[in-house]
Amino acid sequence: MGYVDAHTHVWFKEALPNEFFSNDSGYEYTPPSIQDTLKEMDSVNIDYIVIIAYPSREIWRTKEDFPINMIKVVKEYANRFSIVGGIEPNKLSLSEAKGWLEKQYEAGVSGFKLHPVHSHVKPNAYREEEGGLKQLELLYEFAQDHNLPVIIHTGTSVFLNARNKYADPIFVDDVAVDFPRLKIVLAHMGRPNYVPTAFQLVRIRKNIFGEISSIPPKKLLEYLPRLEEISYKTIYGSDYGGPGIKGIAYNLKEFMSINISEEAKLKMASDNPKALYKPLE
After folding, report:
1. What is the distance between the alpha carbons of residues 202 and 42, in angstroms, rounded to a whole number?
2. Other C-beta atoms within 10 Å of 165: how many?
3. Does any domain span residue 238?
4. What is the extent of the structural domain holding 108?
5. What is the pLDDT along the chain (281 residues), one digit of tens a residue?
6. What are phi and psi of 213, to 5 degrees?
7. 109, exposed or middle or buried, with CB in 10 Å at 0-12, 13-18, 19+?
8. Does residue 242 sit within a domain?
9. Domain holding 205: CATH number?
């Protein structure tokens, strides 16, 4: 049985807008080739990777067509890639939000991502006391009705236009309560500031899953000493393409060497992500 890297930013040049290469994020990204990516995956028995192709006007200059373009680029290798899309609900009209969700779903996305820190929107901004953002409510309803997970970034971001006041996972608690059939993934487990909150939410909310991408595997048990307790609903990911991540293969090897049971590792790096995200084929 092969593994899954459930959180990558392996963005291929052909899918990126020209504006991406002149963004002012403070981070330079060199897109890999598809063939080199496949070779690296094969070297560590990764069946497929999840590519998070989310819109971020403020950081990356990407918009809602990004995941659709990514799907077109990798369609020849559909069984090796799973594409997650998303919308920026506070940057679209209600009709635009609905239209893009439908287009991405028809194209074959396996889920949606909300990046509160990059889009400058709280995860519970749909609630009346938080502003009543109907476009965000639509995102959650659409994902719930179509049995697609929503990944929500938690924890701080180093990029220049990021606003880290939106990083606290506690705002996701409202989402779990208001959309009980929605599968919610806490990307990065709130690292570094909010790990205890994220851990507790994964423990107490049946529809919230943990996800450990971007936490260096060698420090994982420092951040989450009780990781094995939640291994049955936690997902492995590398965050490769992000700052400081050395590679898909390198990160998986490091993760497989940590001091938890082999059963827990297999759940997090194979069983759990395969239950949530499907490859394009």
Report:
1. 31
2. 11
3. yes
4. 3-276
5. 799 999 999 999 999 999 999 888 888 889 999 999 999 999 999 999 999 999 999 999 999 999 999 999 999 999 999 999 999 999 999 999 999 999 999 999 999 999 999 999 999 999 999 999 999 999 999 999 999 999 999 999 999 899 999 999 999 999 999 999 999 999 999 999 999 999 999 999 999 999 999 999 999 999 999 999 999 999 999 999 999 999 999 999 999 999 999 999 999 999 999 999 999 98
6. -60, 150
7. buried
8. yes
9. 3.20.20.140
Question: Checking phi first, is residue 147 left (phi over 0); if not, alpha (psi -120 to 50) or beta?
Answer: left
What token pair was written down for 106? Answer: 């028809």
In a domain, 281, yes or no: no
Q: Which amino acid is at 203?
A: R
Q: How far is CA 105 from CA 84, 132, 275, in A?
A: 10, 25, 18
Q: Indicate the number of domains in the chain.
A: 1
Read off φ and ψ for residue 255, nearest 5 degrees: -65, -45
Whether 146 maps to a domain, the answer reads yes
Residue with token string 């701080």: 156
CB 186 within 8 A of CB 172: yes
- Cα separation, 47 vs 79, in Å, equals 8
